[in-house]
Amino acid sequence: MFTKILIANRGEIACRVIKTARKMGIATVAVYSDADRDAVHVEMADEAVHIGPSPAAQSYLLPEKIIAACKETGAQAVHPGYGFLSERAAFCEALEAEGIVFIGPKPKAIKAMGDKIESKKFANAAKVSTVPGWLGVIENADHAEKIAGEIGYPVMIKASAGGGGKGMRIAWSQSEVRDGFDRARSEAKSSFGDDRVFIEKFVVDPRHIEIQVLADAHGTALYLGERECSIQRRNQKVAEEAPSPFLDAKTRKAMGEQAVALAKAVDYQSAGTVEFIVDAEKNFYFLEMNTRLQVEHPVTELITRIDLVEQMIRVAAGEKLDIKQSDVKLNGWAVESRLYAEDPYRNFLPSIGRLTRYRPPEEGTFGDVVIRNDTGVTEGSEISMFYDPMVAKLCTWAPTRIEAIDAMSEALDSFIVDGIEHNIPFLAALMQHPRWREGRISTGFIAEEYPDGFAPIVPDDDEKAVLAAIATAVELLRRDRLDRLGGRLAPHSGALKRDWVVKIGEDYLKAAILEGMISIPMEIDLSIDGGKALTVTSDWRPGDLIWRGHVGARKVTAQIRPLPNGLRIAWKGMSVTARAMLPRTAELERLMPEKVAPDTSKMLLCPMPGLVVSIAVAEGQEVKVGETLAVVEAMKMENVLRADRDLVVSKLNAKPGDSLAVDAVIMEFA
């Protein structure tokens, strides 16, 4: 067994590998760029080596830097994580030439399966069912249009060396092929150093289901069940679960055996994933094989109790798997939510900055529920524009699917993140969505359910009553605390006031205190808008960011953020401003004038912090609706900004190469 390994990666996956290596008694070496100098994985590892500037192309993507770090520290093996160099056969060969072990498959398997074009050809030769498509070299956009027309729309344009949703575009018509081809090639080159793309038929309403395989160098290969990965946005997974609520035992077995046969055909040795698309009739088609550890591997670990990183290390060290296919049992249900640094209310645009607060829910086993959070950040960490926007992977396990989803819902409500925008509101809303809870999903779920983007959820009457009850309880304690401060001229509360008005958003609700007294823990009975009495209990204290308690029969976990003259309550994907007031204050508050937002209709604002890739127009130019104005890159994704109406460009305020903050003015219109 190795005594020291190097992790050629960063962030949460580097931390994940370090944890298992530490458990196995193996010393670890971290590598880091300028942007990651103070990163968590650097602190966790036994040693750390600086490998270059912040851009991945100048640090994490340079094999020679990794090899030099191995030699400097005496690391015997390299775990590549996912992304970066994890599927580069040339990197694997370079390590072998230096006598350093690659913790992953052999170059033969990486070459056969890691390249999406070659993997399709190999699968066809092996008589594996594949999606119709063009696997040859695509010369230019004209060639792409011709191929797409022959295959039939819609088509998927995909980077050959791609992954993580990068370099992927769906084209529904000829007009979309050329731009999709150019964008996919550009993203592929910047993210993977390889601009080759291929085109295949896009299966409408498919499920994305993948099989985890594990194989050693001694002829043993097995599958560890499946993962349902259909909740995607821009072809990037958002939430996953294991097992799939769609598959039956027969289909699961057929997919698993096919995945194992493919792995054996390329002499696969490590953990790997065979991805399939599955239609409504449970017909499945080979999509690709990822010759590395998947981002979503924790859900498989939770239902099988098999540490995949440990198995990868043992296989790379030449050990034989001590697991047989008959030993693999799928126990319970696991759900994973990917926490991204992106703003769900601005079409999920990337967000960067410092984590002024980062307090995930407590990890561990709580009754029948397991909570796990894989992350590479801590409070004070900087979310950089140079890398993927994923901040953490929150996972829950429970005996049943609904129990796992409910546990995830509560865990998300307990996950505190400040300083950046993030997608927790969307994830929390997803956990309540009827279609998701019923398992009626496809890769088009987000586009179908949120066609105009994700908007703040409007609470119904029952939910408003819960929110109003929380706001009232918080205000009672706040006023009581003020009354107890020494040196005040006179308490402004005095005896407990029974009548209140709570403003939730723009609605005013009457709240009447029926029974109880102000205390910690609190127990009061109140009525909202003349409704039935609700008993509110909680041990919340002023200053706590999480309000836990009961409102009536409902168990509630909500986040509390103080605002001037009120607070913000986040609960189950809802985020509302709330203010509990005495009736006279509410009467006067209604008379306050509303602040009018400035007019930005004649400006193109940068929707996220990012780098200007190109400006497609000139001053004085007339543009038509839908025409490209500029391209802004953030976190390895290129975002095309288009005209929403016919315009005339009057002034350009930015140029290619500029780094812009969110809402910076890129150009102005006459």
TrEMBL record:
Keywords: ATP-binding, Biotin, Ligase, Lipid degradation, Lipid metabolism, Magnesium, Manganese, Metal-binding, Nucleotide-binding
Pathway the protein contributes to: Metabolic intermediate metabolism; propanoyl-CoA degradation; succinyl-CoA from propanoyl-CoA: step 1/3
E.C. designation(s): 6.4.1.3
GO MF annotation: an example: propionyl-CoA carboxylase activity
GO biological process, one term: lipid catabolic process
Domain Biotin carboxylation: 1-451
Keyword Transferase attached: no
Domain Lipoyl-binding per the UniProt entry, residue ranges: 594-670
Database matches in Gene3D superfamilies: 2.40.50.100, 3.30.700.30, ATP-grasp fold, B domain
InterPro entries: ATP-grasp, BC-like_N, Biotin_BS, Biotin_carboxylase_complex, Biotin_carboxylation_dom, Biotin_COase_C, Biotin_lipoyl, CPAse_ATP-bd
ATP-grasp domain boundaries: 120-317
Transmembrane regions: none
Cofactor entry: biotin
Catalytic activity: propanoyl-CoA + hydrogencarbonate + ATP = (S)-methylmalonyl-CoA + ADP + phosphate + H(+)
Domain of life: Bacteria
PANTHER family named among the record's database cross-references: CARBOXYLASE:PYRUVATE/ACETYL-COA/PROPIONYL-COA CARBOXYLASE, METHYLCROTONOYL-COA CARBOXYLASE SUBUNIT ALPHA, MITOCHONDRIAL-RELATED
This protein's name: propionyl-CoA carboxylase
Lineage: Bacteria, Pseudomonadati, Pseudomonadota, Alphaproteobacteria, Hyphomicrobiales
